[in-house]
Amino acid sequence: MARVSVEYKDHIAHVTLTLGDKMNALDAEMVKSIIAAGQEVAASDARAVVLTGEGKSFCAGLDLASFAAMAGMKVEDWLMGRTHGDTNDMQEVAMVWRRVPVPVIAAISGAAFGGGLQLALGADIRIAAPDAKLSVMEMKWGIVPDMGGMVLLPRLLRSDVLRRLTYTAEVVTAEQALDWGLVTEVAADPLAAACALAGRIAGQSPSGIRAAKSLIEIAEAEDRAAVLLAESEVQIGLIGKADQMGVIAARMQGRKPVFK
Fold first, then answer.
1. Distance CA 187, CA 238 (A)
2. pLDDT tens digits, the chain, 260 residues: what are they?
3. Closest CA to 32 of 1, 7, 55, 62
4. Separation of alpha carbons 186 and 197, rounded Å
């Protein structure tokens, strides 16, 4: 994975885009590397993930050479093929992080534009630096968000805000993004804040956290009856099992739980 590094420490997977000199722009190799990193982490025993980009920017979106290449390709084959279940390769850049069974926290510095913003949207939680800039930038190039953005953005934004950002391609500050719901938190050091939060999550019941992420995905997509049934089914898989009994014992003994 030449453009992405994955390191594991204290049950946390640290995933870093490593093309900092190009603002971690998305070229074909970066797309493949991000998907491969997500698949690796999904198969690991990590309990939380921190996703970030090296250098001054999280990810500035699709690189200009990729735009130029589009002009000479048969886009129907490229975009309409479902290469990862319900997604194509570009959509999987964001959606692979929703397939990762544990929480993913994106630490955003500098630019998160276009595809870079959609990548961040694939995370469960987004922590931005005060000087971060975010944009649904596709309209600048005469196209629309097509990397999972129209699955993920409507869950976060009011319809009028979604329409404004999509129609205008305007760049918004971290504070405005926080006010509109595009990011979760603004922190002076987003990477440190993301790591601290990941540490808190990693200290919870591993099976409980995985079940919670799965249940939230169902709750955001299914109808009332399906969600109520899923609550019961998921809970049956937790109550009385090793992780939950370990939590109870630790709480009663006034100590932190320890999980295998």
1. 34
2. 579 999 999 999 999 999 999 999 999 899 999 999 999 999 999 999 999 999 999 999 998 776 556 555 677 766 777 788 889 999 999 999 999 999 999 999 999 999 999 999 999 999 999 999 999 999 998 889 999 999 999 999 999 999 999 999 999 999 999 999 999 999 999 999 999 999 999 999 999 999 999 999 999 999 999 999 999 999 999 999 999 999 999 999 999 999 98
3. 1
4. 13
Q: Which pTM value belongs to this model?
A: 0.93
**Domain spans in the chain, listed from the N-terminal domain onward:** 4-202, 206-252
In the DSSP assignment, the letter for residue 57 is -
Q: What is the residue type of 188?
A: A
Q: Does domain 4-202 have CATH number 3.90.226.10?
A: yes
Domain 206-252 top-level CATH class = mainly alpha
- Please give the C-alpha separations between residue 181 and each of 27, 197, 215, in angstroms, as whole numbers: 28, 19, 21
